[in-house]
Amino acid sequence: MDCNNCELKQRQFFCENCLRTHLRDFRHQTQHFASDRDDQVSKASKALETMEPARIRRATLVEWQNRVDEVMGGLAKLRKENDKKRDRLRTLRENLAARRRTLSAAKLLPQPTTHLASRETHELNTLSVTLARARSGLVQELVEVFNVVEVGGRPPIGGKAGTKGEWTIGDLILPVPGDIRRYPPDHINAVITHTVHFLSLLTFYLGIKLPFEISWAGNKLGVGQPSIGAIKGSEAGGWAKWYTKHPLHLSSATPSASTSTSSNSQTQSLSAIPVSESYTEAADPSPQASFTTALAMLLYNVCYLAYTQSVEVPLSQAGDVLSNLWSVCCSSELGRKSHETAPALPPPTPLSFPLDFTQLLQATTANPASRTRPSRSSKARRSSRNARDKREPTIDEEDGWDLVDGDNFGDGFP
């Protein structure tokens, strides 16, 4: 129908009866097509039922064929790897056979091998000599820098016996342990600091590890006050148990040798110290006892350093520290053996090192009063003294000195 406004053709409208008729016809057509579809599906199903076994067989065959192809590919890969391994094994066998032939030829010709070993030994000896020469040069410069010299001595001339002088380092006299009481504490501390610094550099140049380690309060060389204690080592020499640190310096409150009374008191403090087998300290816990133990440790270090450089230092000469260090610096074997390079030295201290630390400590802290006879009556003492005065000439004792038999400990000990 036409629109009254635009006069255009619009949708056609159907009545209810027409719509009902059209729906009924459409439903009938749908049912007819559905029955046709079902017929076609049933026919196709029947046709497939006859083809299903053949299709399954073909699918199974294809799956098996794929598996066979996969296995054949893996087998081919394994064959290639086996061929490579066979070639490598063949090469290794050929190399092994060639090495065996070379070894057999080398056994039949020992002269080239001996020549090679002798050449290596010669090169090693040459390197060792060069290294020893370099160390000797450094040591000589070190001696000149610290000015280690002997003053006041006289060599033997014209059949006359020579005399020993005093050794100095940095123009400061380092006395033997028996003469320490004659110098003020500041002098002793200064000269011991120089000696410790010299010894540290000397052992560093020579590559020697000492049994007693020196540490500083400032954790740097020469900073603060030094202390000394044993490192870990064997039981040989009896030094390893003295691992407690001892101060290697005297307190400023230690009396000096300005008067005879102060000299006598310091003599008693440095000499009348009993020795104990304790792991830490002697029986006297005073600062003087600890310093004396530290001094004995320093003497032991110097003696062991001399031993490593083929210099023999007897117990009677252990107190001559600078003299022993001078002997080390003048040794013909200086720098040939070390703990750092070949030929290597055994760790401190080997059984061949003869000096025992306990003996050195007893010699350093010897007390003459402990070797006197037991007390007797005054009459017996007077008679014994009179008899001794008749046999021996009178000896004037210097104020502040103690007399000790020299054949027991030798020069340099109280």
From TrEMBL:
Pfam family, any one: ATG14
One Gene Ontology cellular component annotation held by this UniProt entry: endosome
GO molecular function, one term: SNARE binding
Keyword Coiled coil recorded: yes
Keyword Nucleus listed: no
UniProt GO BP: SNARE complex assembly
Xref: InterPro entries: UV_resistance/autophagy_Atg14 (IPR018791)
Residue ranges with Basic residues bias: 373-385
Residue ranges of the region described as Disordered: 364-414
Name this polypeptide is given: Autophagy-related protein 14
UniProt source species: Collybia nuda
Taxonomy of the source species: Eukaryota, Fungi, Dikarya, Basidiomycota, Agaricomycotina
